[in-house]
Automatic annotation (TrEMBL), chain A:
Annotated TM spans: 16-37, 43-64, 85-105, 147-167, 179-199, 219-243, 264-282
UniProt name for this protein: cytochrome-c oxidase
The organism of origin for this protein: Aromatoleum tolulyticum
Family: Belongs to the cytochrome c oxidase subunit 3 family.
Keyword Membrane: yes
UniProtKB keywords: Membrane, Translocase, Transmembrane, Transmembrane helix
Enzyme kind, highest EC tier: translocase
Compartments, record wording: Cell membrane; Membrane
GO molecular function: cytochrome-c oxidase activity
Chief place where the protein resides: membrane
Alphabetical list of PROSITE patterns matching this protein: COX3 (PS50253)
A cellular component annotation (GO) from this entry: plasma membrane
UniProt KW NAD keyword: no
Automatic annotation (TrEMBL), chain B:
Entry keyword annotation includes DNA-binding: no
NCBIfam families with a match to the protein in the record: CtaD_CoxA (TIGR02891)
Family: Belongs to the heme-copper respiratory oxidase family.
Cytochrome oxidase subunit I profile domain boundaries: 22-525
Organism name: Aromatoleum tolulyticum
Protein name: Cytochrome c oxidase subunit 1
Length: 283, 525
C-alpha cells in the first residue's frame, strides 16, 4: 500500500457540456415542432445538430489534446476501458428492445391474431405466418431475401472486422503504414456496406413495395436495420477520426485506447449485424 | 475548525465565478448540490400537480379542473416525480457522497458528470413546457401506454424527447458511478469494506445501464408509430399494444428498484450511526441488494395480470415477484437487528430512518398482496395500487432522501440542522402521509378506480380525508425547505464527525467538506 500514488486527472471547469445541453434542447424541441407542422421546427432541429457537432468537435478535441499531453495515467486509462465497455452494453440493451419486439411479434402476437375471436370476428381469413404486414394491410409486398446484398454485406462487415484487427496489429508492432492502410480499408468497407444498405432500401421501396408502414414486418425490418446503419455510420466516423489521428502521428504501441474504443465499437456493430442477418433476413 | 471555516469562506475554489461557476463546474460537490436543488424544485412542481389532483378529488363532481387536464396532471405528476425528483435526488447524493465515502478525489469523469446534470434542465423544460403547447401535456398516464400514447398531441412528442434526454443523462451518470466505484477506491478500500450506500448505488447503476436504453427503445417505437407509419403497437398491422406494456415494464420494474435501492443504502448508513453498532449482516445486505436487482428483471409482467397472459405466465410472474420479499425481508430484519440492544438516540435522520422502516414495510406488504394474481385482478387500477406505490415511493424513497439529507447536511453545510424544525418536519410528514394514503387502501378495496377526476358518492369521506392529508403533507415540505435554508445560513457548528456514532471516510474530512477532498488518497486499514 505504499506504492507511489498516481494523481487522477480531474479536468478544469468546461464550457462544452452546456453547449451539448443547448444542442439537445434545440434538437428535441425542434423535432417535436417539426413533427407537428411548426415552421420553426426544422430550423431548431438543424441548429441543434450544428451546435452538437461544434460541441463534439470541441470536447473530443480537448480530450485528444489532454491525452497527447500525457495527462492521462494508467488509472484514467482503466476508467476509459470500464466506461466504454458499459456504454456498449447500454447499446446492446437498446437493440434488445427492438429484437424483443421482433421476437414478440413473430412468436406471440401474430400467431395470436390468427387464432380465436380475433380471426373469427375481426379479421376473417387472416392466416398469420411470417412475414406479414398484419391482418388489415392488404397491400402485397415482397419480403427481403438473405442471399444477395445482405449476404454480401455480411461478408463486407466481417472482412472489415478483420482489416481493423490487422490495423491494430500494425499499431501494436509500430508498423504505422499497416495501421493507416488497415484503417482506410476498414472505413471504405464500412462506406461500401452503407451504400449497399441505401441501395437495398431504395430497391425495397421501389420494387418490393416494402416500406416503413408495411405493418409489423416493415416496422421491425426498417427500425432494426436502420438503427444498425446509424451505428455503422457513427462507427465509421469514429474510425475516420482515428485515421486522422494516426496520420497526425498520435498513438503509441502501448497507449492507444482511443483506437481500441473505436475498434470495440466497430466489433459490437459487427456482432449486431450477425444477429440481424440471422433473425431478420435468414429466419 | 475555525481555520478550516475561514479557509472555506475564502474559497479554495478556482475558475469561473457566479453563474458560470455552476454551468462549467467539474466538481462533484457542486454538481451534487445542483442535482439536489433541481430535484427539490421538481418535487415542488410535481407536488403542486398532486395537490391540484387532490383538490379536484376533495368532493365528488367536477369543480376545479377539466377531466382532460386532470389526466394531464396525473401523467405529469408521475413523470416529474419519478424522473425529475426521486431519481436526480439520489444521483445528487451519489455525487456528493460516493467520492467522499470511497476516498476518491472526484468522480471518474468530471466533465461528463457536469453534462449528466445539465441535460436535466432541458429535459424538464420540454416536459413542463408541454403543458403550454396545443393539446396540452401528454395524458396517457406516466406509463405512456399505447395506443393512448400513439393518439396524443404534440405534448406526447415533447415527453418522448424529454425521456430520451433524461435517459442519456441517466446512462452517463450511471456509467460514471460504476467506474468511480470500480476504479477510484482508496488503497485498502476493498469492495466488501465499502459503505453500503456505495454498494446499493453500484447495483442501481447497473440497473440503469441495463434498462434506460430499453425505455428509449419503447418510446422510440411510440414515436415512429405516431409519425412514421410503423405498426409496433397496432394489431391491424400485426403489432400488439400489449407488447408496449411488456417492453415498458421490462424497464419499469427495475426502475422501481432504481428508486428504492439507494434508499436502502442511505438507511443502512443511518441506522448503525444512531444505534452506535455496526450494521448487522453487512455481507447479507450486499447479497440481498444484488438478488433484488437480478430478480427485478424477471417480474415485470406482474404489472399486467389483467391485460391478458397465459396462466403459466401469471403463475411464473406471481411466484417470481413474491420471491423478492425474501431479500427485502433480509434487509428489514438486518436493520431491526442492528437496532437491537443498540444505544439508540432519535435525532431527525434516525426518526426518518425508523419511520422509513415502519411505513416502507407496510408498502412492501401491500406489494406482496398485489403480487398475488387473483387479488391483483380485483385491485388492478384501483386506489389500492395508488396507496401501495405511494407507500414505497413516498414513505420509502422520499423519507430515505429526507433522512439522508438531515444526516449529511452537517457535512455539506458545516452546520447541524435544527433538531426542533427537523422533528416537526418528520412528525408532520409521517402523520399527514398516513392520513393521505392509508384511506386509499379502503377506497381501492371498495373499487374506486385511479386516474378518474370524479367518483361515486360512497367514496366521498375517505377522499376528503385523503385530500386534507395531502395538503398537510404538501405544506409540511415547506418545513423541510426552512430547515435546509436555516442550516445553510447558520446554526451550531458541525464537527468533522458530526454524529457521535458515525463511521466512514466522509466523517474524516472537515465539515463543511472542502471544495477538494482526498486529492491524496487515504489509506483504509
Amino acid at each position: 500500500m505504499t506504492q507511489t500514488f498516481e494523481k487522477y486527472f480531474v479536468p478544469e471547469p468546461s464550457k462544452y457540456p452546456i453547449f451539448g445541453s443547448i444542442a439537445l434542447l434545440l434538437f428535441g424541441s425542434g423535432a417535436a415542432m417539426w413533427l407537428n407542422g411548426f415552421k420553426a421546427g426544422p430550423w431548431a432541429f438543424f441548429l441543434g445538430i450544428a451546435v452538437l457537432v461544434f460541441m463534439l468537435f470541441g470536447w473530443f478535441g480537448q480530450v485528444v489534446h489532454e491525452s497527447e499531453g500525457g495527462k492521462y495515467g494508467r488509472k484514467v486509462d482503466r476508467s476509459f476501458r470500464w466506461s466504454m465497455g458499459w456504454f456498449i452494453f447500454s447499446e446492446v440493451m437498446f437493440f434488445a428492445a427492438f429484437f424483443g419486439a421482433l421476437f414478440y411479434a413473430r412468436v406471440l402476437s401474430v400467431p395470436w391474431l390468427a387464432t380465436g375471436d380475433t380471426v373469427e370476428l375481426l379479421w376473417q381469413g387472416f392466416a398469420g405466418g411470417w412475414p406479414t404486414a398484419g391482418p388489415d394491410k392488404p397491400d402485397p409486398f415482397t419480403p427481403m431475401t438473405a442471399w444477395g446484398i445482405p449476404a454480401l454485406n455480411t461478408l463486407i462487415l466481417l472482412s472489415s472486422g478483420a482489416t481493423l484487427t490487422w490495423a491494430h496489429h500494425g499499431l501494436r508492432h509500430d508498423k504505422r503504414s499497416q495501421l493507416k492502410l488497415g484503417l482506410l480499408v476498414t472505413i471504405l468497407l464500412g462506406v461500401l456496406f452503407l451504400s449497399l444498405q441505401i441501395y437495398e432500401y431504395r430497391h425495397a421501396y421501389a420494387e418490393l413495395n416494402l416500406r416503413l408502414d408495411t405493418g409489423i414486418y416493415g416496422s421491425t425490418f426498417y427500425l432494426l436495420t436502420g438503427f444498425h446503419g446509424m451505428h455503422v455510420t457513427v462507427g465509421a466516423i469514429m474510425l475516420t477520426v482515428m485515421l486522422g489521428r494516426a496520420l497526425a502521428g498520435h498513438f503509441t504501441p502501448d497507449s492507444h485506447f482511443g483506437f481500441e474504443a473505436a475498434a470495440w465499437y466497430w466489433h459490437f456493430v459487427d456482432v449486431v449485424w450477425l444477429l440481424l442477418f440471422v433473425v431478420v433476413y435468414l429466419l | 475548525m475555525a481555520a478550516v471555516m475561514s479557509d472555506h469562506a475564502h474559497g479554495d475554489h478556482h475558475g469561473p465565478t457566479g453563474l458560470m461557476r455552476w454551468i462549467t463546474t467539474t466538481n462533484h460537490k457542486d454538481i451534487g448540490t445542483m442535482y439536489l436543488v433541481f430535484s427539490f424544485i421538481m418535487f415542488l412542481s410535481g407536488g403542486v400537480m398532486a395537490l391540484t389532483i387532490r383538490a379536484e378529488l376533495f368532493q365528488p363532481g367536477l369543480q376545479v379542473v377539466q377531466p382532460e387536464f386532470f389526466n394531464q396532471l396525473t401523467t405529469m405528476h408521475g413523470l416529474v416525480m419519478v424522473f425529475g425528483a426521486i431519481m436526480p435526488a439520489f444521483v445528487g447524493f451519489a455525487n456528493w457522497q460516493i467520492p467522499l465515502m470511497i476516498g476518491a478525489c472526484d468522480m471518474a469523469f468530471a466533465r461528463m458528470n457536469n453534462w449528466s446534470f445539465w441535460l436535466l434542465p432541458p429535459a424538464a423544460t420540454l416536459l413542463i413546457g408541454s403543458f403550454f403547447v396545443p393539446g396540452g401535456a401528454t395524458a396517457a398516464g406516466w406509463t405512456l401506454y399505447a395506443p393512448l400514447s400513439v393518439q396524443m398531441g404534440m405534448g406526447m412528442d415533447m415527453a418522448i424527447f424529454a425521456i430520451h434526454i433524461m435517459g442519456v443523462s441517466s446512462i452517463m451518470g450511471a456509467i460514471n458511478i460504476v467506474v468511480t466505484i470500480l476504479n477510484m477506491r482508496a488503497p485498502g478500500m476493498t469492495m466488501m469494506k465499502m459503505p453500503l450506500f456505495c454498494w446499493t448505488w453500484l447495483i442501481t447503476a447497473y440497473l440503469l445501464i441495463a434498462v434506460m436504453p430499453v425505455l428509449a427503445g419503447a418510446v422510440t417505437m411510440v414515436l415512429t408509430d405516431r409519425h412514421f407509419g410503423t405498426s409496433f403497437f397496432s394489431a391491424a398491422g400485426g403489432g400488439d399494444p400489449v407488447m408496449y406494456q411488456h417492453i415498458f415494464w421490462f424497464f419499469g420494474h427495475p426502475e422501481v428498484y432504481i428508486m428504492i435501492l439507494p434508499a436502502f443504502g442511505i438507511i443502512s448508513q443511518i441506522i448503525p450511526t444512531f444505534a452506535r453498532k455496526p450494521l448487522f449482516g453487512y455481507a447479507s445486505m450486499v447479497y440481498a441488494t444484488a438478488s433484488i436487482a437480478i430478480l427485478s428483471f424477471s417480474v415485470w409482467a406482474h404489472h399486467m395480470f389483467t391485460t391478458g397472459m397465459p396462466a403459466v405466465g401469471q403463475l411464473f410472474f406471481m411466484y417470481a415477484t413474491m420471491l423478492i420479499a425474501v431479500p427485502t425481508g433480509v434487509k428489514v430484519f438486518n436493520w431491526v437487528a442492528t437496532m437491537w440492544r443498540g444505544s439508540m438516540t432519535f435525532e431527525t435522520p434516525m426518526l426518518f430512518a425508523v419511520g422509513f422502516i415502519f411505513v416502507f414495510t407496510m408498502g412492501g406488504f401491500t406489494g406482496l398482496i398485489c403480487a398475488i394474481a387473483p387479488i391483483d385482478i380485483q385491485v388492478q387500477d384501483t386506489y389500492y395500487v395508488v396507496a401501495h406505490f405511494h407507500y414505497v415511493l413516498v414513505a420509502g424513497s422520499l423519507f430515505a432522501l429526507f433522512a439522508g439529507a438531515y444526516y449529511w447536511l452537517p457535512k455539506w453545510t458545516g452546520h447541524m440542522p435544527d433538531e426542533r424544525i427537523g422533528k416537526l418536519h418528520f412528525w408532520c410528514s409521517i402523520v399527514f402521509f398516513n392520513i393521505t394514503f392509508f384511506p386509499m387502501h379502503f377506497l381501492g378495496l371498495a373499487g374506486m378506480p385511479r386516474r378518474i377526476p370524479d367518483y361515486a358518492l360512497q367514496f366521498a369521506d375517505f377522499n376528503m380525508l385523503a385530500s386534507i392529508g395531502a395538503f398537510g403533507f404538501g405544506l409540511s415540505q415547506l418545513i423541510f425547505l426552512a430547515a435546509v435554508v436555516k442550516c445553510v445560513r447558520g446554526g451550531e457548528k458541525a464537527a468533522a464527525r458530526a454524529w457521535e456514532g458515525a463511521e466512514g471516510l466522509e466523517w474524516t474530512v472537515p465539515s463543511p467538506a472542502p471544495h477538494h477532498t482526498f486529492e491524496e488518497a487515504p489509506v483504509v486499514k
